[in-house]
Design a protein that fits this description.
- It holds the Pfam family GMC_oxred_C.
- By secondary structure, this protein is α/β, with parallel strands linked by helices.
- It has one domain: FAD/NAD(P)-binding domain (3-Layer(bba) Sandwich), CATH 3.50.50.
- The chain contains 14 helices and 18 strands.
- Strand 6 and strand 7 form a beta hairpin.
- Helix 3 packs parallel to helix 14 and helix 6 crosses helix 14.
- It is globular, with a radius of gyration of 22 Å.
- The protein starts with a helix and ends in a 10-residue tail after the last helix.
Length: 562
């Protein structure tokens, strides 16, 4: 009863609280569809020669949140985004094959003993970043995530702890907003919207979990359950990963960009950053970038890089100069190191009844029962499990991975509506040789491309195997007649980790680089560990906190607004 009351109170306060500090949901078109083009047409525009207060590279989870926060504080803000400025109504389609333009498909190299495929499950382009095509799953990290070395002897301790982010988590949950049952794991808390109705896939998960005594909850998803401002209720169309045409699923494009534009920020789409430039005083003075085939230099008093776990280290490495011959901020050979992904196996089970797994939010039910280190297990840290909803092309990849082809493959595909699928997120550990370096190959701008080397350790392999075993047990307990599993990865973090000192990391707890005090990194590359949670909410919470610290010192900091 207390849990339900907490959700009711949070829901009643959500719209009232959010509108005072972020009116994005009320700045969409009257019918809630698409994007208000007058915001783009009328946005403030700066010249390259204007020394703006803040220049941000990247308009995803971190960059958009920072732009909105600082524009509201009265800072002059310019955002450079390599991809286009999306319009949900015209650019996003209910078609798996026709949605690849949402992914970062510029050339990259992968290597290591367990190379990570790059694309739809971990890379985005355009205003809104990869949250445009994320599934909407928005959990918090646990308090233990910030002290894995102290508690479990693995990973690294953060220079901040959970208590430093609690208020930021709540603010961002209200802005997205997040829907779900009262959450009993980690730091127990309610969500501002009640949980969505459970579809067939979620019912299978709940049935199997109950049979095994596993706790499961509905949510948390950053998908509106009821109207929010001018955003409509989710209609359960099943294409969350292809961009939400109805604006029910959160992405920075609709949750933070409108308010940033209304407060004077400029977002320049189709602008590829080439290098951060330093002035004679050793401070950042701007960013060189390409637009329409020409190179530009935008001047700024403060620079923030938010290109995510591959493009941020790549940009710093490509910004080598006499002061930093091995790459900007790379005095201690830490730029590009400790890049992490999550082990994300997916397990499907065949049921006699029709499941129609796609007709609900993709991660509608989840459990964090296996999140923490279990002293009785041979591995450290843990994993979470959610139900997921692969559409037919992705489902075909699952089937082909089992060796099925031809008529056999067609038989499985025609049976698509009878399959339920679960997905795990296993916390793979940070390792220094899992890293981004520059390759000899160059892109269309003449810039060296990134090479991402990744290899699993023994702990990683044990975790993934354990997650597979639990998912297969849940589906069999729910009555599955056949079970198949495919191994894969999800999400990207690390590469410019936070630390207490410059010999352990690239940025401090304020997300300022140790080497260049007016250069910030405000994306998932700063995470020292990755937990077993989707990182989007934590990225936004970290940036919310950093923006508050930046604003508090705005008249006294290096190159701060005059």
């Amino acid at each position: 009863m207390r849990a339900a009351a907490g959700t009711v109170r949070a829901n009643a306060a959500a719209q009232r609280e959010v509108r005072r500090t972020n009116a994005s949901a009320w700045l969409l078109p009257e019918d809630g569809q698409g994007f208000d083009h007058t915001l783009r047409r009328d946005m403030r525009r700066y010249a390259d020669s204007d020394e703006v207060d803040l220049l941000i590279v990247g308009c995803g989870a971190g960059g958009s949140t920072l732009a909105q926060r600082m524009a509201r504080r009265g800072w002059s803000v310019v955002v450079l985004e390599a991809g286009p400025f999306w319009d949900p109504l015209t650019d996003w389609v209910s078609d798996e094959a026709a949605s690849h333009h949402l992914y970062w498909t510029e050339p990259r190299l992968i290597s290591g003993s367990d190379p990570v495929p790059l694309g739809s499950n971990n890379s985005g382009r355009g205003v809104g970043g990869s949250m445009v095509h994320f599934a909407g799953y928005a959990p918090r990290f646990h308090p233990s995530d910030f002290r894995t070395h102290s508690l479990d002897g693995v990973g690294a301790d953060w220079p901040v702890d959970y208590d430093d982010l609690r208020d930021s988590y709540r603010r961002v949950e209200y802005e997205l907003p997040v829907a779900g049952q009262y959450w009993p794991w980690g730091d127990p808390h309610p969500y501002p919207h009640p949980p969505h109705p459970v579809g067939g896939n979620g019912e299978i998960f709940l049935r199997g979990a109950a049979a095994l005594g596993i706790q499961a909850r509905v949510g948390p998803v950053a998908i509106t359950n009821g109207r929010f401002g001018r955003r409509p209720h989710c209609i359960y169309r099943g294409f969350c990963l292809q961009g939400c045409k109805v604006n029910a699923k959160a992405s920075p494009l609709i949750t933070h960009v409108p308010d940033a534009l209304a407060h004077g920020a400029e977002i320049r789409a189709d602008c590829m950053a080439a290098a951060v430039e330093l002035g004679p005083d050793g401070l950042a003075r701007g960013v060189r970038y390409f637009h329409n085939g020409r190179e530009h230099l935008q001047l700024a008093r403060t620079v923030a890089v938010a290109g995510y776990a591959i493009e941020t280290p790549r940009l710093l490495l490509n910004s080598a100069c006499p002061r930093f011959p091995d790459g900007l901020c790379n005095d201690h050979d830490l730029v590009g190191r400790y890049v992490m992904v999550q082990g994300a196996p997916q397990t499907s089970g065949r049921f006699e009844e029709e499941i129609r797994a796609h007709k609900a939010p993709p991660p509608e039910v989840s459990t964090e029962q296996y999140y923490e280190t279990d002293p009785d297990k041979p591995y450290k840290r843990g994993f979470t499990i959610q139900n997921i909803s692969p559409l037919p092309i992705t489902w075909a990849e699952h089937v082909v991975a089992q060796g099925h082809w031809g008529a056999d493959l067609r038989r499985y595909l025609s049976d698509y509506v009878h399959w339920a699928t679960l997905g795990a997120m296993a916390e793979l550990l940070p390792q220094p040789d899992n890293r981004i370096t520059l390759a000899e190959q160059t892109d269309r701008y003449g810039l060296p491309v990134a090479n991402f080397a990744f290899s699993q350790c023994d702990n990683d392999r044990m975790l993934i195997k354990a997650a597979r075993g639990v998912m297969e047990s849940i589906l069999r307990a729910a009555g599955a007649s056949e079970v198949i599993t495919i191994d894969r990865y999800a999400h990207l973090v690390g590469g410019c980790r936070m630390a207490d000192n410059p010999r352990a990391g690239v940025v401090d707890h304020r997300l300022r680089t140790f080497a260049v005090p007016n250069l910030l990194i405000t994306d998932g590359s700063v995470l020292p560990t990755q937990g077993s949670a989707n990182p989007a909410l934590t990225i936004m919470a970290l940036v919310d906190r950093a923006a508050g610290l930046l604003a508090a010192g705005e008249r006294s900091g290096l190159r701060a607004p005059s």
